[in-house]
Amino acid sequence: MPQFDPSSFASQFFWLVVMFVLLYLVVSRFAMPRLGDVLETRQRTLSNDVERAHGLKVEAEALMDAYVTASTAARAQAQNVLAQTRNAAQTEADDKNRAARLRLNEQIKNAEQRIAEARDAAIAEIGHTAGAVASQAVYHLAGVSVDPVSADAAVALAMKESS
Questions:
Q1: Quick check: 148 and 135 in contact, CB under 8 A?
Q2: How much of the chain, in percent, has pLDDT values that exceed 90?
Q3: Cβ-based burial of 156 (10 A; exposed 0-12, middle 13-18, buried ≥19)
Q4: Fewest C-beta in 10 Å: which of 4, 52, 66, 68?
């Protein structure tokens, strides 16, 4: 193997240094600036993306807070409207019930009054009829004629005593 021959070490070392210097110059003049530009562009892009993501996160949190606030306010307003509607409906139902109760009480009072009048008229008619029947019975039994006013008075007195 020629590379291990000690007599060619000096020339090999010379070419090694020459090639290393040439490679160093090529890499430092052409490749490294391009790599640096690519890395710098990449770093700027990443920084911009991180800043934009942070801004979007802050904006999303603000929107979420606004949504929660609006949702809470809407829920409270809906509860308030529901309570007002419920109270209004309850008040209306109470008013209708009160009006119906008053109307029914008035009808009951009128009906009781009509019943009392009918009862009194029936009792008066029974008293008059009983007077007429008593005067006829006395006439048929005793042969005595009793005037209708006296018979009615006697029946009225008898009804008072029995009640």
A1: yes
A2: 61
A3: middle
A4: 4
